[in-house]
Write a structure and sequence with these properties.
Elements: E1 2-5, H1 9-20, E2 25-28, H2 32-36, E3 44-46, H3 49-53, E4 58-61, H4 66-76, E5 82-84, H5 90-102, E6 107-109, E7 112-113, H6 116-121, E8 125-128, H7 132-142, E9 148-151, H8 158-187, H9 191-195, H10 207-216, H11 226-242, H12 250-265, H13 275-278
Parallel strand pairs: 1-2, 1-4, 2-3, 4-5, 5-6, 8-9
Antiparallel strand pairs: 7-8
Length: 280
């Protein structure tokens, strides 16, 4: 029997996928109706996480944050191995791993890059890291839940760290797209027309090489000088200002550009923006 604590969109999809594979699944959610909705799929819902966890061979946790993970685990007091798919802090993972090990219970953090459809269809990415023996033992349990299980090594909080890195990239992309739509509106380019840019210009394919160049720090061999990048940013700001549109993201970027130019980096490659995070 497998227990799933947290049946929001992702947790419900995990539960249904387990049920499809013929597993007996106990479910709990803070909002009881969300757990009870899974009874139509064959799950057994509980109002108390301790009752849901009793007798389980393993526990999967999919809740909102560190506080929610700690609260539900303290309430459940599980004896079976815990697999936590919640996006949490690195400090929280380190503390929970130690705390539950002292109680004789395995805690393994396994955050995901998945939407509900991925969880239901066992696609997407799941990250894991930590004690080599624990990860090896967990592999056969976790691999059927995902399209790819990525082992990030023995650092206990590496999976948490890389999940946050990935989410930050997604936030940055969404913020950039938002500014693009704002600029498009300022210039009279409809959203659907803005999207056609990607028919011809696909910077996504160059991201790994661009990042590699960035951390190599070739500031004295510029492909685009910071001062010229700042000029183009000014053009964007001017277009939006004429239309009375204020972009949410670009002002922070231009402020950082201005700071680095004031420090004498105007003729350096524009990746010098990352300099302070690369110098130890």
């Amino acid at each position: 029997m497998i227990t799933l604590l947290g049946t929001g969109l992702l947790g419900s999809a995990f539960a249904r996928a387990l049920l499809r594979r013929g597993e007996t699944v106990h479910v709990w959610n803070r909002t009881a109706a969300k757990a009870r909705a899974l009874e139509a799929d064959g799950a057994i819902a509980f109002d108390d996480p301790a009752d849901a966890a009793r007798g389980a061979s393993r526990i999967h946790v999919v809740v909102s944050d560190d506080a929610a993970v700690d609260a539900v685990l303290e309430a459940a007091q599980p004896l079976a191995p815990i697999f936590d798919h919640t996006t949490t802090s690195t400090a929280g993972v380190l503390e929970r791993t130690t705390r539950w090990r002292h109680r004789g219970v395995t805690y393994l953090h396994a955050p995901v890059f998945m939407g509900p459809s991925n969880a239901l269809e066992s696609t997407g990415l799941m990250l894991v890291s930590g004690d080599r023996h624990l990860v090896a033992a967990a592999r056969s349990l976790l691999e059927p839940m995902t399209g790819k299980l990525v082992d990030l090594g023995e650092r206990v909080d590496a999976a948490a760290a890389f999940k946050l890195l990935g989410n930050l990239l997604l936030m940055a992309l969404t913020a950039g797209f938002t500014d693009m739509l704002g600029l498009g509106k300022a210039m009279g380019v409809a959203p659907a027309e803005v999207a056609t840019l990607f028919d011809h210009f696909n910077p996504g394919a160059s991201l790994p090489a661009r990042f590699a160049r960035m951390i190599a720090a070739p500031y004295d061999d510029p492909s685009w000088e910071l001062a010229m990048a700042r000029k183009d940013a000014r053009l964007v700001v001017d277009e939006c200002s004429r239309a009375g549109i204020e972009l949410p993201t670009l002002p922070a970027i231009t402020a950082h550009m201005d700071e680095m130019i004031a420090r004498g980096f105007g003729h350096a490659d524009w990746t010098v923006l990352a300099r302070d995070f690369l110098v130890s």
